Amino acid sequence: MTYHEHRTKAKKELKFGILTVSTSRYGAGRPEDLAGDLAKQLIKTKKHKVVRRAIVPDSIIKIRKKVLEILEDVDVLVITGGTGASKTDVTLEAIKPIWDKEMPGFGEAFRMEGYKKIGSPALLSRAAMGVLGGKIILCLPGSPDGVKLGLEIIMDELPHLKFVLEENT
After folding, report:
1. Is-contact 117 149, C-beta < 8 A?
2. Torsions phi, psi of 24, nearest 5?
3. What is the residue-averaged pLDDT of the chain?
4. CA dihedral defined by 112, 113, 118, 120, rounded to 10 degrees?
5. C-beta of residue 5 within 8 angstroms of C-beta of residue 110
6. Residue 6 falls within a domain, yes or no?
């Protein structure tokens, strides 16, 4: 089947979850979550649905537990936060060991496009994408600009990827 056929047969509306990783926002009542709010807005502009949303602290165990819970209900999970170099940035340490596959081209494109916009600070990002059990997981920075860039890069390709993941199941 060709790329064009994949895109034609792919679902037009995907179900998304948004997980914010932030110790400072976790347990803060109704915390301000600009990156998560922006992700929701951008997802809806592409005619997809956000069906789950949560906030967890920077904890490998809590991140992994919530990811597995949310993946039960979604096609795509967008994780914001925890992708930097700080010792508390543990999103990738929680996610990479459970991925079926990493899609390294996304992180490479993210850093390349980020470098064009902001220069060398973009090289410090560990933005990444992988798949688990036929579901797509995007790990993005916790900044609204990082979320916007990441979703601009990949949103139009997600239905195609989801189709490919389901094609042989």
Report:
1. yes
2. -70, -30
3. 93
4. -10
5. no
6. no
Q: In what order do the strands lie in the sheet with 128-132?
A: 49-56, 15-21, 76-80, 135-140, 128-132, 101-102
Range of the domain at 91: 11-167
Residue 145 is encoded by which pair of tokens?
């600009």
Say if 4 falls within a structural domain.
Answer: no
Question: What confidence tier does 169 reach under pLDDT thresholds 50, 70, 90?
Answer: low
Tokens of 142: 């916790």
Question: What mean pLDDT is predicted for residues 77-94?
Answer: 96
Query: How many domains does the chain divide into?
Result: 1
In a domain, 29, yes or no: yes
pLDDT digits 0-9 by tens, 103-127: 999 999 999 999 999 999 999 999 9
Distance, CA of 14 to CA of 8 (rounded, Å): 14
The helix (H) or strand (E) run that includes residue 24 is: none
**Is 135 within 8 Å of 22 (Cβ atoms)?**
no
